[in-house]
Amino acid sequence: GRAAHRLVEAGRDRRTDGQLAGPEPGTTSALAAANAALAVPVGYLGGLTLVSLVASRRQPPLRPAADPTTRFVVLVPAHDEATTISTMLRGVFAQEYPAVLFQVHVVADNCTDETASIAAALGARVHERHDRSSPGKGPALNWLVDRLVADDVPFDAAVFIDADTTIAVDFLRVLDRRFRNGSIAVQGFYGVREAFESTPATLRYCALAARHHCRPLARTAIGGSCGLFGNGMAFARQLVVDRSWSSHLVEDMEFQLDLLLSGVRVEYEPLARLEAEMPHTFADSVTQHQRWEVGRFDLVRRYLPRLVARVARPAGTSRVAAADAVADLCVPPLSLLAVVTGASAGLGAVLAAFSPNRSRWHFVGGILLATLCCHVLASLRLVGAPSRAYRSLLHAPRLAVWKMSVLLRSIIGSDTDWVRTRRNAER
Predict the structure, then answer these.
(1) What does pTM read for this prediction?
(2) Distance between the two ends of the chain, CA-based, in angstroms?
(3) Does the structure show a pLDDT above 90 at 60?
């Protein structure tokens, strides 16, 4: 015990040659640089957290709406979705919305199963597409919209819903209020179906509480574009007719950025709720996450300079909305950000313990880590998460390791193609 005490005391004193026994100044400088870089994404998330907490308290109470008037077409892209599409369609046809004001159109894209016949039997209007030279959600939706326009199908707004989704019975009624109030692009709350059936699904539930609710709520409140998440999106007719989807790996994010650069903001509507299936194993999630990360890297490269230019010289795009989009693109995956911030906090604690001259940079990592934790916990609180969601965070290190392996694969194999994610019922 005395030897340990003398060792610690020696580390706090100067050596006989006048040098410090603590870390080299370069180590503190490197830590300062790392914390300064981390402060940008973490500070952005912390600011959004505060705004979302305020915005959630200012949400107006749900009032009975006047008779709906918006004519919707519900567009469902489906590729071999025989195991999931029946539940989704029953939910759409059970909507508390006048049946004469909405139609359901399913594009059975290059299907090799019974998707088309199941959808038709349940009352959907089915469009079978066979074009293996141009697969993917974007081309399938473009093809479907072209058919609706050619057939003069009447609609005021189009809603895009994935085939593995369940939706709240008032989903269309909530969107009707938005469009009657002048909205032209809306993203609903997109959660996780059967969120507590497995650890991966529960962790995804926690991640989407932040990504799909806390952040969009705040981004809309500050005048930004909340983002598009590929499911539960709705657009006024003119946007759907005048624009097309690309075959990009994250075509929804690309579409949102193009809208923003043309001056159109996507608004978040938390009361328009739907949930989609998420894989119950990490293995089944690999291709999906890899596709997202490769696609995101490409969008950062292509859109970040244009958005920065709009911040400096707005041209049809709000400076606030452009700056918000820049910040959002610069935020890495939450699990990766947590790992790096945790490492910074740990290193800072060690340096502070053994350095004779503590620097404020030794403690910044801890503050940033606390901010990130508050972001996650506040997000769970905002969605009314049960206690088991909080307990699932104990498995977050496992998720972080897995996510880092996916990111590494994404960097190495940047030519990732679209691959359909296997459904849970197919395991």
Answers:
(1) 0.87
(2) 57
(3) no
